[in-house]
Structures
1.
Amino acid sequence: MKENNKTQTFTKVECADRLSAVEDAIYVLGGKWKLRIIVALVSGYHRFNEIQRSVKGISPRVLSNELKILELNGLVKRTVDSESFPVLVEYIPTDYAETLKELVSMLGNWGVNHKKRISSEIDL
Amino acid sequence: MKENNKTQTFTKVECADRLSAVEDAIYVLGGKWKLRIIVALVSGYHRFNEIQRSVKGISPRVLSNELKILELNGLVKRTVDSESFPVLVEYIPTDYAETLKELVSMLGNWGVNHKKRISSEIDL
DNA sequence: CAGAATCCGTTAGGATACTG
DNA sequence: CAGTATCCTAACGGATTCTG
């Protein structure tokens, strides 16, 4: 049976599993902020206020929440250096977060394309 | 300057644009139901109640809303055959919806992997 | 069958002020 | 600096009933 990425076939169970996997991914990455924060993190912003400035429009409350969730999901590591003053807290993206780069890239490509489509529709 | 998919570089403006593109994509595809509905559509479910049965747990109100939004975004076409009785309404995924297959596939892969990670963490 | 109408609870997230 | 605490609103979405 030939199977390239254009003609993947799945049994019903496999299909259901994959669907729930898609949902899992959306659950972890969805919402207004998570991917934006991840991008900020991998772009080199590690301090709380730094991230807040980088991710425009986010409030500290929301940022704090999202960072906790991202940490729970193993995408970022919170480190505290209590020797320094003021206490230095850093949010470091894990290697695991890197695995999202390709996905983010694809989403971006699709989004760019989609914007073109939509705006050209308006012209019709 | 070498540029493979591991070392893409962007100017600040390009980066901001791409980021907003990612947001656009999430906006169009995000939420609890949209990708699930798209999967149902490309899987061959075209009638309203058919789709509702396929996408487990969705209410008619929500399904109706989502379908309208998907139509606005060009991902599905609503067709009515008023000659027939009862009136036959069908929701046909556009070719454009096919462009999501790869994305959905990647999300699925990532999700599968993520579930493994998370559940193995619990064992630690 | 294909939805619309209604009602209602939950939650995401915004604004702002405050604290160690 | 790195958050927490409060308050508040809008949107999401569930349940149910109704209709052409």
2.
Amino acid sequence: MLDPKLIRESPDLVRAAIAKKHLSVDLEAVLSADAAWRALLQDVERLRGLQKAANTAMATLPKGSPEFLAKLAEMKAVAAQVKERDAGLKAAEEACREAMLTLPNLPHASVPEGRTPEENVVFSSHGDPASAGPSAVAHWDIPGFSRLFDFERGSKVTGAGFPFFIGEGARLVRALINFFLEEDARAGYVEVSPPIFVNAASATATGQLPDKEGQMYETTPDRLFAVPTAEVPLTNFFREEILEESALPVRRCAYTPCFRREAGSYGKDVRGLNRLHQFDKVELLKWVHPSSSYDELDRLRDDVEGLLRKLGLPYRVLLMCGGDLGFAQSKKYDLEVWAAGQKRWLEVSSCSNFEAFQARRAQIRYRSKETGRAELLHTLNGSGLAVPRVLAAILENNLEPDGRVRIPEALVPHFGKSHLSFG
RNA sequence: GGAGGGAUGGCCGAGUGGCUUAAGGCGCAGGUUUGCUAAACCUGUUAACCAGAAAUGGUUACGGGGGUUCGAAUCCCCCUCCCUCCGCCA
């Protein structure tokens, strides 16, 4: 959420942010909810002040004395008033908080204007999409594909979008996870293996609840949520904590399976490995000093790009425009890898700076050396990387005439051989 | 899953209805003393929110939530977490 003081004192900034993100949010309703809450607060605090003063007086009066009894009668009336208005105050506070949660994070000045994904800016391009040749095929059309990636049995056992990975298919998944983790560790991210179920408080702090509840798998009767990304348990690691400034920046990476219901998806988006309900991903997280978060965003993007460069896959970096930025992000880059057979770009990473938006909601702070006070820090995250789509791109770009797939050199030590075959 | 014990400030730890933001100690900051260091002594040392240009004032907070009461760290109810023992288990 945004700083309530900012909303109150600079509503124009918030209004501009809403416009740049092309959202329709009723800022006036937020402002009036806030004003109503503050008016009630002052009223209740005045009454509490009366109670407190009376309490001090009554402590020294002899019990049963006329003065004591007079005070007591007087305070009974005040107590009734407090009780009544306190209920209203709580409701107003809740309403105010809920209203404020509807306000999006402010986009950074460097975020381009735009409404739709088409207006995202191509920030950079790497490698030659044409190198695989015009005869490249979609990965699901590669002869023997279903022997290594068994969607039918996955559907039988669990449901659509939960394939089995078999033999060299499974091995390639494991090689990619291993490669990502080792490269990320080399870049300074400490590996973490987090819980893959989180409670409602955690899902709320990172914004999955209450709005995106339908996107998560939920367990009964414990009401735990299967993580849609390792971002959720990782970000919550420091929830409601105060870090030492000298500990910043904290950089971590985690491999987890990710679970997404993907309600409403359809068509070629969901074919093959493009979009699964369960998939493997390595996520990168940073907790940084506010003054360095944009430098850290550049470094994060560069770290993730390094993975794609080493894999030798053609990719491009998009700078997201205001309309495609997302609710909580201040600035976001999407990394897309070229799928030569499908002749389309697949998003394999999203690198975002949330500034203090997540940190305020999750109450993650650092102790400022300068002021001695606890200040909100900035959080960033990015995938490094999503496995199935990278795998799909390898299959489509590296398919050789003999029907085998060349394994990128950087991956060979992890995979154990130079080619994957479907036979 | 069963039985019991616990949760107080940065830390340890008192406190069983009122003048308690909370004794005492440790730690930390400033000061005095002092060839230097150490010690000793003195003073200070929570956070959030609201109002205010500011100085400052006010309210809240003793794991979380609800209740009793004029008044709750203290009494009652529910929940969470931690510890010990038993059971089960990769």
3.
Amino acid sequence: MANCMVFHTQIASIMEVLANAAVADICKLVDDDYAVFRLEMTQSQKENRALRRKLQLLELKVARERVLASRPSSVKILDRHRGMARGEGHLTGGHRSFVKPARHNTWRDDQPNTVDEGSGTSTQHVIVIESVDAEDAGPGVKLERSEGEDPGQSTDIQTGAAGVLPVATEDPTTTTPPRTRRSFTEVSGTPNAVLKSDTETLTVAHRGSDNRSDAERLGSLGCPPAPSSEDLPVFHQSLKTVNSCGNTDGDTLDTGGDDPSCFYATEMDPGNISVGLETQTDLSRGDWNRYSSSVYSEGCLDKKGEVIAVDKVTVKVEGDTPLTWNADETHLGEGHSQDFLDYRDSLETNPNVSSHSPLHTLRDCAPVSTSKGPYDSRSRVLFDQVLNSNDRARAQAQGGGATSGNSKEKRFLCMFCNKGFSCLQKVEIHQRVHTGVKPFSCTQCDMRFAEAGSLKRHQRVHTGEKPYSCPQCHMRFTQAGSLKRHLKVHVGERLFA
DNA sequence: CTGGGGACGGGGCCC
DNA sequence: GGGGCCCCGTCCCCA
């Protein structure tokens, strides 16, 4: 009996030893595999980074070659603070002025529309590619780019001689700077970036990193917070105007009324995008290779809507150079990055959509907004919209869409989806679908609209005006379509079977 | 079924 | 006459 017990004990101990050994072996195997796996992952990541850098350099190189091939080096590339050609306001000496269009109903004569320089922050900073003479093209490319989240660091990409100020002056007399210069905007995660130039300093703060509220930021700049400023970064184009929240003579449009029900502002959906699209070179050919990227911003708007400050910085990019894009530095998850890569591919496979589309900028800008406002919540939607619209564009191109059929009448093509429009303004309005630019803002609420008519229609919500009344009942409606739809109730038509 | 916004085409006016 | 600008109407969609 005792021997039996000893035997069992020995067996148990042996089994325990064996089990421990097996576990140890398994653990060792797992550890080894994990180490190998991590090593492979690290190597893959390194390769990815190297390939991206290579791609970046190639893009730069191609850009430089295109520039050199397309025009003499003395051509002015950068024209910041460009005034708007349309009747939507223009810049005068770095200040944004608004001129009421002659028949612009959204600006009522009795409205004290005050346009003032805003103040605040923005998530944007300017990347300048300075393309110097031919001898600089090639391996001598100097890439200066903030890789990290270094506050206050300006992120300029400069090629050629260092020390050149990254932002062109707005001095109209210096129309032909000695160097070819490219400037475009990008939103990055840089918490604070200060752009300096001969004439101005752009204080750019990253919303997501700024713990202060917008009201605090605005307040610190002497500007009351805008009702919608919570969602909107504010971009200052000039130091001269940073603290000029009060009215300035040149920028004030005071029509003397007391109904600031609406105003016209050039703003954009900050959560989506930071550029607006304005021009194209050869509209008849749908050639959008040269375009302007306008950095819209919002200034101050007090609660009463009496003081509206709008600021705008226009960064004009001319020439054929594609915007550089660094996937490494988009502050995105991998999924987003992949989406953008896919879209980039789709863009570039679309022969009618310029590869220099501001969507390259958009790709950088849209997903990095950290604001929490309603517009921000739509950023992803808008991006998907752009993606889808591009697919639609291809479908149109293949299936005899607007671009192939009546190209004579609809010769203005959307640079995002290729849809054709009869005139430039139509396509500009349409492109707001893609860019998220909503220049028309209601002063009585935070609503923004891409079209003036929509704002006007919206105003009836506040005024209570219901001009459309049913002749068969007492129902009244704010929209004609609503009345028309309602009339079907009386005639027995049902919307749904 | 209504309220309200997005999008777009048509048409008038002006240059 | 053509093009640009602007307004309006309409359809569609969603809440």
4.
Amino acid sequence: MATIREVADKAGVAPASVTRVLGGYPNVSDELRERVLTAVREVGYEPDLVAAGLRRGYTKTIGMIVNDILNPVVAQMVDVVEDELRVAGYGVILANSNGQSAHDLVNLRLLHQRRVDGLIASVADDTNPDLIATMAGLPIPVVLLDRQIELENLSAVLSDHRYSARALANHLIDHGHRQIAIISGATSAYPSRERVTGVLDVMRERGLPVRPEFQVSGRGSEEFASRSLSSIMDQPEPPTAIIIGNGNTAALVGVLHELRRRGVQIGVDIAIAAAEDGPLVSLYTPAITAVERDIIDLGRRAARMVLAQLAKDTLRAQTIVLPTRLVIRESTDWTLPAPALH
Amino acid sequence: MATIREVADKAGVAPASVTRVLGGYPNVSDELRERVLTAVREVGYEPDLVAAGLRRGYTKTIGMIVNDILNPVVAQMVDVVEDELRVAGYGVILANSNGQSAHDLVNLRLLHQRRVDGLIASVADDTNPDLIATMAGLPIPVVLLDRQIELENLSAVLSDHRYSARALANHLIDHGHRQIAIISGATSAYPSRERVTGVLDVMRERGLPVRPEFQVSGRGSEEFASRSLSSIMDQPEPPTAIIIGNGNTAALVGVLHELRRRGVQIGVDIAIAAAEDGPLVSLYTPAITAVERDIIDLGRRAARMVLAQLAKDTLRAQTIVLPTRLVIRESTDWTLPAPALH
DNA sequence: GTCTGTTCTGAAAACGATACCGGAAAGTCA
DNA sequence: TGACTTTCCGGTATCGTTTTCAGAACAGAC
């Protein structure tokens, strides 16, 4: 592997001059620039960003921690972040925690040891005290992506999940539902936490019973979702509406499979709503009510926020909240007949 | 940020001893190890992997180039690769090319400059001569993931797309279809190339007409897919079966939307098959025939192949092909009535 | 011709960790 | 006891790049 010194020797100049040419510094004569560039081509020189990183003190890489890359929404965030950062000259080191907070902790340490210049994090559990303590001490800009930790040095880009959860609860109640169940992801992460809070708030405000056995939260696996649904539907006086408060496709699939197996008809026997929009819910028969939000915007803002803080060395951390929108479809757009009086 | 020297000073030892303790080398007395470890804790030392990388000559990172991370199948590959490599102590730098071969080239250079120890690549265009030339010269182990380039130094893990494409074509013909169209991704990437080859081969073998206007390939966007379908269906004597030869969800969605818009009924007017299995195709009404394969296995083998080549310094490149399986569902599981004779 | 001020270039010192080398101490064997 | 091996540890060169500093070359002004 050719080094800068070989280039310098070939061109008959000092290594420093090669740096000046390649770095685009102004004080270089045309003649020297020419000599260096041809030498670079001749020896096939590729700069060593590891060595440069050590000397410079920054690496031009950003770490990205995600919860679950199998979630299409998360994949989309990764996509846009990676894209936005690449054009700014940054590489992205991706770390997936698969929903396990312990993984987040080791990933955080590893990224720090790799000396990333900044961090975009969508951790599994934003209430983990160890994680919070570690994050508080990081000497680099950190942007939380759809996660909330109250710390001076952390920025965040959030979606307003509570708003859409409230809208959904009101919509269901307006259509005659009184027994509403919610199967959500772990409430140790902001989105599910907000969704559950929003729904329960509305139910209380409108005087509806909140039955604890109708509120299940946990891992977003297919099995967990279908088991949860089962236990809920086996209760006396089962719910007439189910809210899936987990953006993961697997959770939705688990519920749909179990409903099919039981012969429960969506739009007739039961109303269903999903936490996240996508082709599966919009093309399903019947089409499923879901929450829509601009993922591209979310990811882009997170990326730009890190870049901004990196540019002007010290920039206050900030938090922004982006809107969500309820898309009503056939699965909930019908009214439950009033119960017969006895 | 604490350095190894500060730790050494605090513990009253030489920097080299700190390295020995932290690196788990055998020749260290318990007493010195103890002193070093407490010093490490006291000053809050975190090793600098950038500096270590420079000195050691390897970075403990693997580059991963992917075509389109929005494709759920690709996301799953990223997931398993990242997982497998993390437990082996490697970090993953992800680079997404969004289907553009030019991006692949810059990503390749960037990863090389970052001195990744190995590369797992699922590039946009595995026929690009520039890319092939660059890859031929890489001094690190490279494993192609579902891509095929005939070079001595490149390994590959492939799926047998041709097999399933042939099975699908035979299945359709057996059910009375004579006019079969295929909308595929760019044939400059191995999977679509193989699928198209497989289908056309079978059609020729069984003496069916291969109409060039029924064979479209290009970007896997929703718009492209629906436009392609439109132009195909507007031909005289339109096809009775459509093969979607692109694993991307967007392509499938485009076709489904357009069929809905036109009021063409799947399973009655037309047969549909998808290139890749998933919740959307299995839960759609009617359920859609698709090709299933073990993505986890694919990704895991690619990861392990890089690791193996990294472990024993020189290991011949190898290629393995993994099976695919056709899952027949309602969308094709019906027989086309014989045409009325005139 | 000297002096000042640009503009360009080279020498050398870092950045932080590791690997090599050699020396000291401790153990082994005759 | 002496010679020899083994174990442990410190000093220091080194990885490839960038940055700082100072000097060289040159021009223009007096």
